[in-house]
Amino acid sequence: MDLPDNQIPDDASPPWLNKGDNAWQLTAATLVGLQSVPGLVILYGSIVKKKWAVNSAFMAFYAFAAVLFCWVGWGYQMSFGETLLPFLGKPDVALNQKFLLKQAFAGKFPNATMVFFQFVFAGITLILIAGALLGRMNFIAWMLFVPLWLTFSYTIGAFSMWCPRGWLFKLGIIDYSGGFVIHLSSGVAGFTAAYWVGPRASRDRERFPPNNILLMLAGAGLLWMGWTGFNGGDPYVASIDASLAVLNTHVCAAMSLLTWLMLDILFFEKPSVIGATQGMITGLVCITPAAGVVQGWAAIVMGLLSGSVPWFTMMVLHKKIWLLKQVDDTMAVFHTHAVAGSLGGILTGLFAEPKLCRLYYLVDDWQHFTGLFYGFHSGKIWLGSKQLLIQLLGIAFVIVLNVFTTSVICLGIRMVVPLRLSEEDLNVGDDGIHGEEAYALWGDGEKFENSRYNSVHGFEESSKIRSEVQTA
């Protein structure tokens, strides 16, 4: 059936469309999407114990699909649409052709591009939360958690800080590409959800070796390179600011990785591959709220701090603070995302260069966007102090929002289905949950163990095959 003529523009390239910006925005969105699928799918599936490989990877794979459905159904408009409340937009469908082919609220490209670009950010946020829950969360509970958390938590943070009508946006908060909306949110929400779900089985918590470190590095590499689109796409234009953001991103990540590596060697006498990966992630997270609004020297300083402060909280404070010891955060998202995201937000309040901020926000407003250090330098200390206070307010808002909403969601789900897997499934892992395993150890993947999913005939057949193999 053809669409009504008034829903399709006469010109495929209307005057407001910039083909270069549109091409870069779609490319950046695809790079961010590759961070999740296959990046974090591979990373999660390989960094866990072998029996959890399929379930861990599939939690990420499912979340990516579920978020997209919710995003176009109501999530995008709740995050960037018309105001319902000072911190939330009105829910509405974002698949109307007339809407999708109009110019987006920012940038010289259509709403269809903006919807896709913002979706991949929402998708990776949920996948990061999954990192705290690997190895014990009931998959059905996870299926319910994803749309609920997207609806009642992510949309509030995104509207408040990224939508021009949001209250924190109007105050002048600087969150260049998601240090607050994505990383601090996922770190706090993941830690909170991990508290309610409970810890892994004791033997898993005591010993949880990666099943494939080389594959883990492949996933980490996709995550690192994909960050080019993560931070490079947020000016919504293929500008010099986008170029600066990309370079600052990789400089900070490299500096953070090297710092974490040196600390591991200094204190543990071994250059840990997993540690270096964590350092890479904390560097990427830390620079995210500041990527295009700080100078190169600041990116290096942020890398030094992002490689050392989260290292200290993970390796030292984690063993001393009671709450941190009680919560089983499988991928340490509290340290790599909540701590690093908060650190990045604070350092943005110190290092934000006023001219770069105005270049990014395309405004000539001297009442906002001045880092504290530049406030001292220019004699406008009150402006720098104000910016730092706004950054701290943003951190407090995200923490309170996500502790509350995540707790309510988990308690609500617990009334319907268990949050935690049964003891039998905790012992079996992938085969118990999905009836599938990651690695075939015999022939073409025949199962020789007496799985509860093997029929009597199947078990007899596998025994026959094993007998034939032994005879040969």
TrEMBL record:
Segments traversing the membrane: 23-45, 57-76, 115-134, 141-160, 180-198, 210-230, 242-261, 273-291, 297-318, 330-352, 388-413
Any one GO molecular-function label of the UniProt entry: ammonium channel activity
Subcellular location: Cell membrane
Cellular component aspect of the GO annotation: plasma membrane
Entry membrane topology: Multi-pass membrane protein
Principal location listed in the UniProt entry: membrane
Cleavable signal peptide: none
PROSITE patterns to which the protein is assigned, alphabetical: AMMONIUM_TRANSP (PS01219)
Record-annotated Ammonium transporter AmtB-like domain positions: 23-439
Domain of life: Eukaryota
Pfam families: Ammonium_transp
InterPro entries: Ammonium/urea_transptr, Ammonium_transpt, Ammonium_transpt_CS, NH4_transpt_AmtB-like_dom, RhesusRHD
Sorted UniProt keywords: Ammonia transport, Membrane, Transmembrane, Transmembrane helix, Transport
NCBIfam families in the cross-refs: amt (TIGR00836)
Record family assignment: Belongs to the ammonia transporter channel (TC 1.A.11.2) family.
Name the UniProt record assigns to this protein: Ammonium transporter
Classification lineage: Eukaryota, Viridiplantae, Streptophyta, Embryophyta, Tracheophyta
